[in-house]
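Rotation project, supervised by the postdoc (A.L.). Task for the rotation student: set up a whole-complex structure prediction and record inputs and outputs verbatim in this book. Inputs entered:
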Amino acid sequence: MARGDAEFVEFARAASARLVHAAFLMTGDHHQAEDAAQTALARTYASWSRVHDDDAYGYARRTLVNHLVDGWRRPMREYPTDEVPEQRRGDVADEVATRRWLVTILGALSPRERAIVVLRYYFDLPEAQVARELAVSVGTVKSTSSRALEKLRTAAPRTTDEEARR
Amino acid sequence: MNEWERLRHAMRATERPDAVLDLATVMREGRRLRTRRRVAGAGAATLAAGIAAVVVLVAVDASGSGGTAPTERPPPVAVAPPSVGVSPTSPEPTPPPTVARDVPPPKALGQVIDSGVRYGTDQRVYYLVRVSVPGAPKVTVGLAAGRRSPNGYLTTDLLVNDVEGADRSAGFHQIGYDERSSTTPVPTFGYFVGPAQRIIGTVDGQQVDARLARWSFDKNVVIFWFDPAELAPGKRLDGIIARDASGRRL
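Outputs recorded:
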C-alpha cells in the first residue's frame, strides 16, 4: 500500500464514526448516513494528495454536508429499536431513549436547521465557520439557530409527555 | 442543563464508535472519481488547447502573433501559525494526566508538528497516534511528544490520552508534563478541542502563552505546548484557559 493510501486508511478509521453519526443526525436514516459518509470519504480520497496535509477532516465534513444538502428531500425517520448494537455500552435503555428523543427533536427541524444545529453543536464550529460551510450569512445562522431553539422548546415537552404515557 | 446543552449531550451520547465503513469500496470509488476527474481535466485541456490553436491561427492570420494554452492547479496547503499574546485572566483546575512511557516508535496520524525546540540536530515534535483504551471506545487517539532526528526517525518520549469519555469532546484534554523519563526534558503540552486562538497557562501567579498548531486531520483539535524558556518542563500549571478569536473564554 502506498504511503498516502496508508495515511488515508488511518484518517478514515479515525473520522468515519463521527462522519456517519453527523450524517445520521442530519438525515435520521442510518443507511443514508453510511452512504453519505462513504461518498464523502471517497471524494476526500480522490483529492487526498492535496488535502491530507491541510484539513482532511474539515474537507470530509464539508463534502459530507454539501452532499447531504444537495440531496435533501427525505423526511426524518424514526430509528428502530431493534437496530441498537448488541454490545453493551453503559445503559442501553437510556441510550435508546436519548436516541428516540434526539430523532424526534431533529425531525421537527428543517434540513437547513438540522445542518446548522449539527455543525454548530455536534462539531462545535463557530457561527462564522458554519456560515462559510453552508454558504449563508452569519445572520442566517443566528436566526436559524434561534428558530431551531424555539422548535426544540416546543417539541421537547411533547416528547417527554409521550414517554410518560408509555 | 439548557436545551442546547441537552441536545449537544444527546448528539454525542448516541455516537456509535463501532461504525465501520467498507474502506476498500471507499478507496475504489475514490480512485474511480480521481480517474474521471483526470480524464475530464485532460479533455478540457485538449479542448482549450484546440480553441487556443484556432485563436492563434486566427491571430497569426490577422497580426502574426501567437498565444498559450491555459492550465489549472489546486489551492495551496495551509500550516497553522503560533499564537499571539494579549491579556490573560483567571485560572481553572488542570486535569490530571494519564501518561504512558517507553512507547515504541509510533505511526503519526496526520502531520507531525515541529515545536521549534531543538536538542542538537533533533527536533521536539508533537503528533497524534492511534490508541485503544478498554472501556473507552470513543478514545481512539492520543497525543505524543517525541523527537525527530534529521533522518526523520521519530522517538516517543511521552504519550497522553483520555481514559474515559471521548477524545474529541470540546475543551481541554489530558496535559503532559515532563517526568524525567527521557534524556531530553519534555515541554508541557496537550490539546484542546474547539475554536481556540489563544491558550494561557497560569503558574505561580504568572500567565504564560502556549504555542498552538492545529491537527492536519481535524482543525478543531488545537495542539499546544509551552516554550521551555517560559515554563520549565515538569512544572505543574495552576490553571489553563482557552480564548477564541474575539478573546471570549471557551
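Student's summary: Chain A has two domains: 1-77, 89-166.
Supervisor addendum: Chain A has eight helices and no strands.
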